[in-house]
Amino acid sequence: MAAEQPGTDTDGTPARDAGGRTVEQLAGLPRLGPRYALALLPGRAGGGTLPERELALSELRVDAANLAAYARVCGFPLDGTLPVTYPQVLAFGPQIRLMTEPGFPVRLPGLVHLRQRIRQHRAIGADEPLELRVHAENLRAHPRGALVDLVAEVSTSDGPAWQARSSYLSRGGSAPDPTGADEPEPADLEAPLSARWQLAGDTGRRYASVSGDVNPIHLHSLTARLFGFRGAIAHGMWTAARCVSTLTGRLPDAYDVDVVFRKPVVLPTGVDLHTARTPTGWALTLRGGPDRDRVHLVMSVTGITTG
After folding, report:
1. What is the pLDDT of residues 11-29, one digit of tens each?
2. Beta bridge pairs of residue 6
3. Contact indicator for 237, 211 with CB cutoff of 8 Å
4. Which one, of 72, 99, 58, 98, lies nearest residue 211 by Cα?
5. Exposed / middle / buried, residue 196 (Cβ in 10 Å: 0-12, 13-18, 19+)
6. Tens digits of residue pLDDT in 121-153
7. Cα separation of 100 and 112, whole Å?
8. Among 11, 102, 225, 235, which residue has the least CB neighbours within 10 Å?
9. What is the signed CA dihedral for 144, 298, 214, 135, rounded to 10 degrees?
10. Environment class of residue 48 by beta-carbon count within 10 Å: exposed (0-12), middle (13-18) or buried (19+)?
11. CA-derived radius of gyration, the chain
């Protein structure tokens, strides 16, 4: 596990981000295996507020071999830029580090990834040095428990290039009432069939090997059943990456990806991808089940104007 230390301003006081959070500099990306093991210990969650701090990592370089393996597993080409979902792989370790510290108000075991929103301001070169920052915010009540957002930002030498908001549900958790309405979810549109995939039973293990996300619910049917699943389930971020990769060559440099995860993909299985153009970009729906009527995810991809 990487060590971290608080940053300081020029006057020696702790550095703070724009939201007033204390900024702590990581020495490297945390290893996730020990973090998941730590999360299983009792008493790791407590309190009712989110930590007022941000984890940061400067001069981060992408490992070329890992990027190539990720592209192969998720269906992206190697074109000298980062796939739009790849920076989330970099952000995930620091986010887990934050969520597994004592006092974090929700426990990691049982968290459900409900939604992922990504904004890419421009394509990021695979060899660019990056600055990564993550923090937690917006703990609020949900009909099924408590929701919390893990926010990530990746900057390059010319400023912010990528941002993401990962929304997690803690079933049965408690939190204050939300202070405002969330953004509308992508619509589940009737769209033509664009791809049909047969997903192997080792899909979760293959994605875990390139993402570092070794959550046991994704690795083997036996460990998944311990957490209440019928079998190993595909990572939500793998399904999102695999779907958006089908739009390669048809997207602008700057765009938003908004994906809502509905029913888990229990492996092995067959799934159908439905894709349609919209006035602002693309709509995608991934379906499965015996009659291919079970919605696994709904996604919108929308071009944006940057200034």
Report:
1. 444 576 666 889 999 999 8
2. 24
3. yes
4. 72
5. exposed
6. 999 999 999 999 999 999 999 998 999 999 999
7. 15
8. 11
9. -70
10. exposed
11. 19
Q: Which of 151, 132, 135 is nearest to 53 (CA)?
A: 135
Query: In the β-sheet with 53-60, what is the strand arrangement from edge to edge?
Result: 4-6, 22-26, 53-60, 130-142, 145-156, 159-171, 112-120, 255-261, 294-303, 281-288, 269-278, 193-199
* Residues 105 and 138: beta-carbon distance below 8 Å: no
φ, ψ dihedrals at 246, nearest 5°: -70, -10
Specify the pairing of strand 112-120 against strand 159-171.
antiparallel
The pTM is what? 0.90
Query: Residue for token digits 């997903």?
Result: 199
CA dihedral 5, 44, 259, 270 (to 10 degrees): 120
Count how many residues are written for the chain: 307
Rounded Cα–Cα distance for residues 44 and 40 (Å):
8
DSSP per position, 124-153: PBTT--EEEEEEEEEEEEETTEEEEEEEEE
